[in-house]
Amino acid sequence: MSQEYIQSCGSYQLVFGLRWFPVLGASTAQQARNLYKRHHAKAWVVAGRHFSSVGLSMSGFSARAHHVSAAVCFATLFPRGVHAAIYQLTAERYWLIAAHEGTPLRHGDMVFESVEQAQQRVQQLTVHHTTLVLQPEVLSIQALIPLLTQRMRLKAKMQPIRQRRWAWVAGATVVVSLVYWSYVPRVSVAAVDPAPVFDPYQHYWEQQSRPASHYVALQVLLEHWQQLPLTLAAWRLADSNCQVQKTAWQCIHSFKPTMESANVLDFQQQQPSEWQMVQADLQHIQVQTQVVFQSTDPRRWRASQALQAELLAKLQRIKPAFQTIKLQEPIRYLAKNTAIATSPEIRPIFEQSLSLQAPLRSLALLLDFDEHFYWEKASFIVNQKAKATLKQSAVQVQLHGVAYARD
User: Fold this and answer.
1) Is 220 in contact with 249 (CB distance < 8 Å)?
2) No. of H helices and E strands in the chain?
3) For residues 66 and 152, is the Cβ–Cβ distance under 8 A?
């Protein structure tokens, strides 16, 4: 029998073993209220992208504490398909989590006393979810905690059920503020436009204008990678190399034979229709595909100090889940044969490259990077013999990106 378990993670409490109820229609909040009243719950959370579920907690939470649903966090990491994993919480507690399309399953957030009980529940879930993918190893919960970004935790925050008796105070504060600012005198200063100065950096930037390939592009690539078959006919996925070209990733996936009888015809019969075979020999098959992402805005730069402070802070936060992180020194974003202006009014534009290596699961942390950081190259290799740790897994990824700054 599953029971709730709460683990302290410093500034927040991670909650396991919620009771989940799928809801239909647009009135999600009203249905959530009906559910927690009917089941006498003490806190609730709503999760889901394509469909919604309400998670209920029977534990009493302090209004001052920040409680986060672990199931919602895991589901956010896997927005496509049916995924499950078993994590060890303590010596006698194992957490089973299963999510479908980014939403926890009804009986997919459960705490058991043994790993065998959790595995038995997985078998029951596969009866109704035949495409369920179970993580191959039982991992410590410490492998998941570094992946929980602040934005993810806010999305998964539990809402304690209490009377909001102080709501009118907030409203009154807003009214008083509006009245105050309506009496603040406004000062208008006429601006004098300086004489136009040719800016070679701006000119080159506009000539080289490229579509943004920020977190939206990375999200699309992660979803594509998660759907790749590890085996196809008698061929095994070995690696994948992708590069951004305008508004799409151009990817080359490589496969190696798993047995002597492997042949290219069997592979072609089973490969997705959008794949194009570019090379094949006795020990190697390469296919090419295009992964399109939505990009309506051009790339932009940020102020140097703001970029450095935010970039360093985010890299330091995700560092425990990455094998290597290399942040290169900024270089001038200007063609070598372009004359550099000597006027002090001209501020250079710089580009700063970032390279990372980590398990595939850790890349979800990079979705928290804002729209001013752009990804350009991504690749992974598959090593079935690799031992799963926080910084290692069977699928190890290399990622390269760039940010732009101007003083």
Assistant:
1) yes
2) 9, 23
3) no
Q: Give the Cα separation of 77 and 152 in Å (integer).
A: 9
Reported for 121-125, long-range contacts at CB under 8 A and 24+ positions apart, including other chains, are 121/96, 122/84, 122/86, 122/96, 122/98, 125/84, 125/98
In this structure, what are the phi and psi dihedrals at residue 261, rounded to the nearest 5 degrees?
-85, 0
Token pair recorded at residue 197: 């100065």
pLDDT digits (tens, 9 = 90+) for 169-180: 445 454 444 544
Written as six digits, the tokens of 184 are 């603040």
Q: Are 238 and 254 in contact (CB under 8 A)?
A: yes
Spatial separation of the C-alpha atoms in residues 44 and 30, rounded to whole Å: 12
pTM comes to 0.55
pLDDT at residue 13 is higher than 60:
yes
How far apart are the C-alpha atoms of 200 and 84, rounded to whole Å? Answer: 53
- 68, 153 contact by CB (below 8 A): yes
Q: Is 157 exposed, middle or buried (0-12, 13-18, 19+ CB in 10 A)?
A: middle
Which of 256, 245, 260 is closest to 281 using CA atoms? 256
Question: What is the pLDDT at residue 50?
Answer: 63
Q: Mention every residue, 6+ apart, whose C-beta is less than 8 A from residue 104.
A: 18, 20, 47, 53, 55, 69, 71, 72, 74, 75, 97, 98
